[in-house]
Amino acid sequence: xxxxxxxxxxxxxxxxxxxxxxxxxxxxxxxxxxxxxxxxxxxxxxxxxxxxxxxxxxxxxxxxxxxxxxxxxxxxxxxxxxxxxxxxxxxxxxxxxxxxxxxxxxxxxxxxxxxxxxxxxxxxxxxxxxxxxxxxxxxxxxxxxxx
Length: 147
Fold this sequence. Notes:
Number of strands: 4
Distance between the termini: 39 Å
Order of helices and strands: HHEEEHEHH
Helix content: 25-40%
Strand content: 15-25%
Low-confidence stretches: none
Structural class: alpha+beta
């Protein structure tokens, strides 16, 4: 379904995830990625949520960063996405996490759904990303550190 999400987000050529990589990330010795799958009564997958922990230095507690939420087109509007988000909210409340955060593409029609559940756009904060050659150039500037 991750590759289906890449199609939906109009970047199928950018998704290089393999089954082995996902399995290792979720079930390896020290997993740092967590996931939930929404399934129908016949056990067919309708959607998924992949997330990891973040940390607020101001609040002093962890939170959940939702990396991906995807519901297959034929199952949108069925409550699958709401159920996945509700489960993540439940985990936050149960564990004392103070926030559940994510980003989305500005054209995604899910904006109305997110607003309906009370989510708000984080104003004054801009997402940044460092990848590829820029990431490599910055890494070369790191001082030598004894480990």
